Amino acid sequence: EDTPGDRRLVAYVVPAGDHEALPDALRDFAGQRLPAYMVPSAVVVLDALPLAANGKLDSRALPAPEHLTGSGREPVTLQEQILCAVFADILGVPAVGVDDDFFALGGHSLLAARLVSRVRTVLGAEVPLRALFEAPTVARLASRLAGSGAVRPALSAGLRPQRLPLSYAQQRLWFIEQLEGPSATYNTPIALRLSGAVDKDALGTALRDVIGRHEVLR
Q1: Beta pairing class for 149-150 and 125-126
Q2: Which of 14, 69, 171, 197 has its CA 20 to 30 A from that of 159?
Q3: Rounded to whole angstroms, how far apart are CA atoms 109 and 90?
Q4: Residue 179: predicted pLDDT
Q5: Spans of the chain, pLDDT less than 50
Q6: pTM of the predicted structure, to 2 decimals
Q7: Who's near 54: CB < 8 A, 6+ residues apart?
Q8: Are 92 and 104 in contact (CB under 8 A)?
Q9: What is the DSSP letter of 102?
């Protein structure tokens, strides 16, 4: 987790011999046998694993992976330029070429979901998440956009009836209460011990805000 909130699976290896092509070979090997989310986003080759004083692995001393970018062709069309900028922003890298693989540059399923959402916002195109796994480069994804559907309409509040219908879970609890009578079976009591000075006014305001936000509490 080099960037807060952005966790990535990284493999650290100590090779026995020549290791020039080892990172790509290991990723290809893992990709043929593991689901995409289990394939390391990067492979870092080390001369030796860093050890702590007790002889165990010192994970904090492991170096952050360096993702190579900008080695592919430059974008030609405006759409490719926009996609390259979106790829780079989501991945947190300076630049992305049209032939650079999203997952080889450190992308994973969570970042893929962000990318699809960003493409929907910026280009107004609806791209299924599966399409990014099948076409993980800007060039290939741009060709998919030509046949993509219209963007989904934004969510909007619907008409609100005076009496709201119960959910299935609420109907079940209502039925049990009608059958067995009032009961505290589904109540969840919680006792909290507060230490130090308590601002009663602030606490009361916070609780009232929660009650005002969630009508099920009223």
Answers
A1: antiparallel
A2: 171
A3: 12
A4: 92
A5: none
A6: 0.54
A7: none
A8: no
A9: T
**Residue 159: left (phi > 0), alpha (psi -120 to 50), or beta?**
beta
Could you tell me which residues are beta bridge partners of residue 44? 12
CA angle at 167 for the pair 178 and 159, rounded to the nearest 5°: 125
For residues 38 and 9, the answer to whether their CB atoms sit within 8 Å is yes
Is 79:125 a contact under the CB 8 Å cutoff? no
CA proximity to 23, closest of 41, 35, 36: 41
Q: What is the residue type of 190? A: I
**How far is residue 20's CA from residue 214's CA, in Å, rounded to a whole number?**
58
Q: List pLDDT tens digits, range 142-192.
A: 888 876 656 666 667 778 888 888 889 889 989 999 999 988 888 888 898
Residue 43: phi and psi, rounded to 5, are -120, 120
**81 neighbors 57 (Cβ within 8 angstroms):** no
Domains and CATH numbers, the chain: 1-66 (3.30.300.30), 78-146 (1.10.1200.10)
